[in-house]
Amino acid sequence: MGLLNVPSSKNRHSRQLRILDVVTAVLFGGVLIFFLLVFTKLGDSWADSGRRTLMRSDPRQRWKMISEILVGRRVPEIDVCPADMVDHLPCEDPRISSQLSRDMNYYRERHCPPREDTPLCLIPPPDGYQIPVQWPESLHKIWHDNMPYNKIADRKGHQGWMKEEGPYFVFPGGGTMFPGGAYPYIEKLKQYIPIAGGTLRTALDMGCGVASFGGYMLQENILTLSFAPRDSHKAQIQFALERGIPAFVAMLGTRVLPFPAYSFDLVHCSRCLIPFTAYSSAYFLEVDRLLRPGGFLVISGPPVQWPKQDREWSDLQAVARTLCYDLIAVDGNTAIWKKPVSASCLLNQNEFGIEFCDESDDPNVAWYTKLRKCVTRASSVAGTYAIGAIPKWPERLMTAPSRGSVIKLGSKMFEEDNRRWTRKIAYYKNSLNIKLGTPSIRNVMDMNAFFGGFAAALASDPVWVMNVVPPHKPSSLDIIFDRGLIGVYHDWCEPFSTYPRTYDLIHVSSIGSLGGDSESRANRCNLVDLMVEIDRILRPDGTVIIRDAPPVILKVDRIARAMRWRSSIHKSEAEPYGMEKILVATKTWLKNPL
Questions:
Q1: How many Cβ atoms are within 10 Å of 467's Cβ, its own excluded?
Q2: pLDDT tens, position by position, 1-36
Q3: Are 338 and 328 in contact, with CB atoms under 8 Å apart?
């Protein structure tokens, strides 16, 4: 008889131990992962990554959400974005720009992701965020925790840019080329430029740092629009806006800047490091396009009398002479030129090969327009717009600009627009209890500005207004600049070039028209994405005023509820004859997702 092959008790015991080891290891690993997910930032990171992947992975889910918001039986709430998106700029995203060419700083320009790749979510404020310090105190200090980035303070504090003091960042008013402060620097410029008296009103500050120059020019009634790219300093434009100074994110690279021709009375560069004579002098020619005849160009820092940059300084002077600019003064490392008042000037023989632009070229076209390497012809811009020909500030605000003649019945429409907005602003303040004219509101945007009548009616209030003219609308931005106001071209089917929580109040008339095609009348983008973008650039407790036909306002109100805004619908000041309704909403506070 054969023997049964029975495992020994020793083997069974060994196998049980191995199984017990595996179970123990699995349990220990599970506990470790649990603690990592719950009690460390790694868990937050994984969760954020998962949320973002979920938001982007399925466009069908995105469109389903949009449809439910617009026409569903119930209004679903839009999710809060991951915590690492608190300062998200969709069109200036380093994850996109790092993959692009660095030639002519192409990678620092606007590059917007496809709409289906944009998360449909609401950006929360950072931990510790507070309502911004009110103007004019904000010119000198802001809350540190609203943008807790110490890089500029650490690197530029010795030059008077900014420094940390207790719960604040404070701004002594200095800059790299004026470490003693913007005020004495501006006093120096007054020796050569008519800064006081209203002759100059609009200015452009290129590569502005934290915009102290623009902030202190406001004391001279000069409205300066400052710009800089999103670069290694990270938050310089964000600091400027938190201070209540007009600014936006931009880069002078392969495209023209989003302004019409002859917009600015003064163009300023303080160590902006723009290579004005490179690329066939394209950057100097862009400055010439933007500078009003009779206007002033100020360049402080390299290459002006700068060590080891004799050739660059010589070339800069030669290009300016080629365009008949008058070199008024060279004061240390600061050079000041005056542009000729007469028609466009260009020396027939020049070493740079510069020529006039074709007569068919419209220099006011400036939305995703390739950088021009030619001189703008004054004859291609209708009207009288030179310094000395237009009225001084503040008279120019209510004077119909001659460039308005290109719009049919432009002068009559201009005057009626002014009267209409005077009534509307009074209604906003007195009947709708909007806090315009109080320290609560400083940074304001008009998303569909036309002639700038909304901003003009607020001229006596302590606000500045970014007037936006969509490029598919009638071209009226030149009129806005001739009035002594500021603004940009922008297509609202794309995100705006600014940081989250930029504006205290956002105003829009005919919001339903902003995503349409003027020729086909088809919608190029949807209201939900547009409203989510408004939410991104509006600060918590900020105010939104939207005017449109009743059916559009009802849609907007549904979206407002999906974004957790507190909203109410009102009749217009023109009732019972008007066909508009007005939605007034307040952005509520969002918490970072756990």
A1: 26
A2: 444 444 454 455 555 545 555 556 556 655 555 454
A3: yes
Q: Record the pTM.
A: 0.89
Residue 130 to residue 48: CA distance in whole angstroms: 24
- Residue 360's SS3 state is coil
Which residues, including other chains, have CB under 8 Å from residue 140's CB and lie 6 or more apart? 170, 171, 173
And the tokens for 65? 């959400």
Q: How many residues does the chain have?
A: 594
Structure tokens at 521: 């009348």
| Phi, psi at 60, each rounded to 5° | -65, -40
Q: What distances in angstroms separate CA 35 from CA 29, 38, 45, 74, one per listed residue?
A: 10, 5, 14, 38
Residue 15 makes CB contacts below 8 A (sequence gap 6+) with none
Calculate helix-pair angle for 527-537, 550-562, nearest 10 degrees: 60
* Buried/exposed code over 522-531 (b: 16+ C-beta within 10 A; e: otherwise): eeebbbbbbb
Rounded CA separation 306/510 (Å): 51
Q: Which sign, positive or negative, has the C-alpha torsion 241, 247, 250, 252?
A: negative
DSSP per residue over 160-183, as a string?
TS-EEETTEEE--S-BTTBTT-HH
Instruction: Give the tens place of pLDDT for each residue, 194-221.
Output: 999 999 999 999 988 899 999 999 999 9
Is the sign of the CA dihedral 497, 498, 499, 501 positive or negative? Answer: negative
Q: Residue 332: its pLDDT value, please?
A: 95
Strands of the sheet with 464-469, listed across from one edge = 487-489, 464-469, 443-446, 503-509, 538-548, 581-586, 566-571
Distance CA 338, CA 399 (A): 25
What pLDDT does residue 60 have?
Answer: 83
Average pLDDT over the chain, rounded to whole? 88
Count CA atoms within 13 Å of residue 54 on its CB side: 12
Contact 247, 226 (CB under 8 A): yes
DSSP-derived pairing of the beta strands 264-270 and 566-571: unpaired
Return the CA Rg of the chain.
Answer: 28
**What's the confidence (pLDDT) of residue 527?**
95
Q: Residue 19: what pLDDT?
A: 58
Furthest CA-CA distance within the chain: 124
pLDDT digit string, tens, across residues 333-367: 999 999 998 767 887 667 888 999 998 899 999 99
| CA proximity to 554, closest of 67, 62, 71 | 71
> Exposed, middle or buried by CB within 10 Å (0-12, 13-18, 19+), for 43?
middle
Look at residue 48 and tell me whether its pLDDT is greater than 50: no
pLDDT, tens digit (0-9, with 9 covering 90-100), for 102-140: 999 999 999 999 988 888 999 999 999 999 999 999 999
Predicted confidence band at 42 (pLDDT cuts at 50, 70, 90)? very low
Torsion angle (degrees, nearest 10) of CA 19, 25, 30, 33: -160
